[in-house]
Write a structure and sequence with these properties.
about 350 residues, Rossmann fold, 2 domains, four-stranded parallel sheet
Length: about 350
């Protein structure tokens, strides 16, 4: 009797092949031409991305990537490879684990081809995006499914959509928080990657989170697909578990692009307000980024630190991401092997 084998596609966003401007430009073009990222008509997207954004942004972004690049390459890729290797070791020979980047290499297409060659009977799509957003989990899942459903034989599929409120995931961050002396910080900030407000309005969310710039209601049937509501739920669970006073905690959104309104409150503006109000030390959780990358290492660790100091603050202390921590790998193992 043939032994069943399961392919596990660990899905991450992506990284340039190198910090050289030409490679960063390729990455930006592939990333920003995704209609789930910039959701405008194709012709307009072509003009915006290839005619304006990629050309002007690539040299600046290349300089930033050079600052975080290591001898082994991009931190996001290093942690991704290590995570996949550790997960493979934990799962054993009945599983075939592959890391697939939505943009650039190692590509999701190549990962899926390896599953086909291995004749797997089942595939688990495992996104490294805890909160569901159309531009991250949605894009990666859609891409993977297009590749898999082109096969003559379509294996059994398990699609993990989000785990923003999974007790196992939350406990990983709660334990990180317990290792910090939270009482020594004026403010505890929970910063998430932003998305345009229009993505929230078109996501099917019928909750009041569409109406207010600062508050988001608890998760309920009308808003459970709302990225912003999921972010607030993740943060509030950690705030409650660590007994952080409400007046000491803030939930914000970073990394906006363009002039359209993005999710608020904005992280950079909030830090300015905190510094100008006399706050000196801020502890930062970055629960949307499970691996340290440009947005954590440079944006939070360098750019926001400089911004905070400029306006009178002293220290922005970033809690390291989950990266390839053994406890994180164990949680992913349980997600893959559970019947959910």
């Amino acid at each position: 009797m043939k032994k069943t084998r399961t392919g596990v596609l660990v899905m991450q966003l992506g990284t340039p092949d190198s910090p050289a401007t030409k490679d960063v430009r390729k990455y930006l073009r592939e990333f920003l031409m995704d209609p789930r990222v910039i959701d405008v008509p194709y012709v307009l997207r072509q003009i915006l991305v290839n005619g304006i954004i990629a050309n002007f942004r690539a040299p600046k972004s290349a300089k930033l990537y050079k600052e975080i690049w290591t001898e082994e390459g991009s931190p996001l890729l290093i942690y991704g490879k290590s995570l996949a290797s550790k997960l493979q070791q934990l799962l054993g020979d009945d599983y075939h684990v592959e890391l697939g980047m939505r943009y650039r290499k190692p590509s999701m297409k190549e990962a899926v081809r390896k599953f086909k060659a291995a004749k797997v009977d089942k595939i688990v799509l495992l996104p490294l995006f805890p909160q569901f957003a159309s531009s991250s989990t949605g894009s990666a899942t859609e891409y993977a499914l297009k590749e898999i459903t082109s096969w003559q034989f379509i294996p059994e599929l398990k699609v993990i959509g989000s785990y923003y409120n999974d007790p196992g995931f939350l406990n990983l961050w709660i334990e990180k928080g317990r290792q910090m002396q939270i009482e020594n910080y004026d403010t505890v900030m929970f910063t998430f990657h932003g998305v345009p407000w229009r993505h929230i309005r078109t996501s099917g969310c019928a909750g009041t989170c569409q109406k207010g710039p600062t508050d988001c209601p608890v998760i309920h049937p009308d808003n459970h697909v709302c990225y912003r509501a999921q972010c607030f739920t993740s943060a509030n669970a950690v705030i409650e578990a660590l007994q952080i006073p409400k007046e000491k905690a803030v939930i914000t959104f970073q990394s906006r692009l363009g002039k359209d309104p993005w999710l608020t409150p904005y992280t950079d503006k909030t830090l300015i307000n905190l510094a100008e109000s006399g706050k000196k030390n801020v502890l930062v959780f970055s629960m949307a980024f499970v691996a340290d990358c440009l947005e954590t290492i440079h944006e939070v660790g360098a750019e926001y630190q400089e911004l905070f100091e400029e306006h009178g603050g002293e220290k922005v202390h970033l809690i390291p991401s989950l990266n390839d921590d053994d406890s994180w790998i164990k949680f992913l193992y349980e997600m893959v092997t559970s019947p959910r």
